DNA sequence: CGGAGTCCGTTACACAACGTTACGAAAGCA
DNA sequence: TGCTTTCGTAACGTTGTGTAACGGACTCCG
């Protein structure tokens, strides 16, 4: 069972659920994050209330998986605080499985309460159920404001994931090429190593070969993208190589909301 | 614990929830109804699919507590049918508590799945959680009549199962194509794997497990549906492919009552 | 200047996922 | 019974992407 997705042939970007995983046990957290990512979501880690707050305030979070026992802190309290201000769905996760403990979770506003240890597939199903209800009940799925990137005469529209050449001709990028372009556009003038690019691509979905050992895949991918967006691929002006480091998007990018 | 609070933040009075209790065991049904009524809701009895249908079509129902085993009938099937036409929240209740049985419940669109025997107080808490989320996310939307789906100029009426093209011409879909469209409409923007689609179709679709081994059946079915509802089937804008995942209904769907 | 090692660009290839078509079996209908 | 529709299966074509191999370019060091 897969949770989400993000790109399809033609390179359209989709809304990927962003799930905040809150647990102070690093192993547990990593396990959950890895599993959720394998099933197609963007899973973000947090270990305490401050980190939760930072994520919620800072970026979009579609769902919170909240452990009850967080060292000194109390997940129930965090849940209650969140619920006062936010509509973000919350699923409590806890080793405390007694009925009255579960009811405490629901009492502070949790949408679901799952006892540890749990079957990951079942967790996934319940995550999906909560996300599904959230989406279903808004009669029309609300669209986020999208951004348009411009660089060197080129245009990239984040919503439609379409790339237009300077002559307004649409260029077809593959999924992976689109993902690479997105990563680069998000980090202009910042050299990125192959590992950084690879993990970024994996977070945004796609495959998880994980074995970055003989990883010339990024080089080939870069080459292919250059063939499509560089005027002269042999002498790249946009996607440049930093020898011994990685690649840079070495050009100014104008970002505008639509 | 009270099920409904008289007032919420902002001072508006909240309606008393109407809960439909579906169970063919009369004692069980009565117990649940009495308990729910004691806790401030309007609980209505139903013992089979026809009674459920009558209640849903006839009056306002805020939540359905649906037993899985209903004599000859299957609660899962009823759940799926409801989910295709209605947004009413559904909590499955069942003596079948194995993980895969729970997951089947979530797969057909249940909002929660509670195993018998259960703690009544915990049931109440979960009922509250589901109702709470429903109110939070859709304070204005009625969930009463048959739904009409609109996407990209197309119209699908859940009750008559008719599909109208943008030019108001009725398009004939086969039974299986219609079922697929229903599944997709119920999960817009959520990628579905072939297994998920197949099991969803099978719950209502009489067809047998059909050994999903060489299962390209879904692909072919998707292709056929695309040929009917996509302007350009070669470049699908509605029913998109998520490589390595499955398919998505990647378009905003407006749901309205009729 | 030159040589060796490293890093990178490029091409070809293999493979997996998906689209498409044809065909036949089963079910519905006259 | 014969015709039509529906739908799963099989087979083949297409596309996207990682791997491997080769060769060029750069760097360090003498």
Description of the structure:
Two copies of one chain form a homodimer. With 258 residues, chain A is α/β, with parallel strands linked by helices. The first copy, chain A, folds into two domains: 120 residues, Rossmann fold (3-Layer(aba) Sandwich); 111 residues, Winged helix-like DNA-binding domain superfamily/Winged helix DNA-binding domain (Arc Repressor Mutant, subunit A). Helix content of chain A is 37%, strand content 22%. In chain A, the strands form four sheets. Chain A has a five-stranded parallel beta sheet with strand order 2-1-3-6-7, with helices on both faces. In chain A, α6 crosses α8. The radius of gyration of chain A is 21 Å and the shape is elongated. The two termini of chain A are 34 Å apart. At the A-B interface, α4 and α5 of A face α4, α5, β12, β13 and β15 of B. The structure holds a DNA duplex (30 and 30 nucleotides).
Short description:
Chain A has helices at residues 26-38, 49-58, 75-85, 99-107, 120-137, 175-186, 194-203, 217-229; strands at residues 18-22, 42-46, 63-67, 69-70, 73-74, 90-94, 112-115, 147-151, 154-157, 162-164, 170-171, 192-193, 239-242, 246-249, 254-257.
Mean pLDDT of chain A: 80
Strand order of the largest sheet of chain A: 2-1-3-6-7
CATH fold naming of the largest domain in chain A: Rossmann fold
Oligomer: homodimer
Distance between the termini of chain A: 34 Å
Number of structural units classed as domains of chain A: 2
Which class do the helix and strand fractions of chain A yield? alpha/beta
The total count of helices of chain A amounts to 8
- Which segments of chain A are poorly predicted (pLDDT under 50) over 5 or more consecutive residues? 1-14, 139-145, 205-213
Q: What is the general shape of chain A?
A: elongated
Task: Describe the main β-sheet of chain A briefly.
Answer: 5 strands, parallel
User: Can you identify the CATH class of the largest domain in chain A?
Assistant: Alpha Beta
Largest interface: A-B, 46 and 52 residues
Give the helix level of chain A as a range of percent: 25-40%
Count of distinct strands of chain A: 15
Radius of gyration of chain A over all CA atoms, rounded: 21 Å
The topology string of helices and strands of chain A comes to EHEHEEEHEHEHEEEEHEHHEEE
- From the coordinates shown, what is the CATH architecture of the largest domain in chain A? 3-Layer(aba) Sandwich
CATH superfamily of the largest domain in chain A: Response regulator
